[in-house]
């Protein structure tokens, strides 16, 4: 490798984990646990149902389908 090529290569910062991001996974799981313990499952389910029945329902369903196909919405 040439010296100038080596100088242009950069190592990503240590706080960027990429795919399989353990920090994001931990935060998500903690949020779910907190929500369950707070007893807000029914409240969140009703809110989601209202959103699906509301003006954004089509957009939400399209995003869900795109996610199932592994495509960005």
Overview of the molecule:
The chain has helices at 3-8, 22-37, 41-53, 57-69. The chain has a domain at 27-73. The model has no long low-confidence stretch (mean pLDDT 84). It is mainly α and 73 residues long. Helix content is 66%, strand content 0%. The protein is flat, with a radius of gyration of 20 Å. Residues 1-12 have a biased composition (Polar residues). Residues 1-73 are annotated as: Disordered. Residues 19-50, 58-73 have a biased composition (Basic and acidic residues).
Give a nutshell description of this structure.
The chain has 73 residues and is mainly alpha-helical. Helix content is 66%, strand content 0%. It has a domain at 27-73.
Which structural traits does this protein have?
73 residues, mainly alpha, 4 helices, 0% strand, flat
* Largest β-sheet summary: none
**What's the overall average pLDDT, rounded?**
84
Q: For the terminal residues, how far apart are their CA atoms? A: 40 Å
Instruction: Please bin the fraction of helical residues.
Output: 55-70%
Number of contiguous helices: 4
Runs in which pLDDT lies below 50 for 5 or more consecutive residues are: none
What structural class results from the helix and strand content? mainly alpha
> Quick one: overall form?
flat
How much β-strand is present in the residues? under 5%
Secondary-structure element string: HHHH
Number of strands: 0
- Rg, alpha carbons: 20 Å
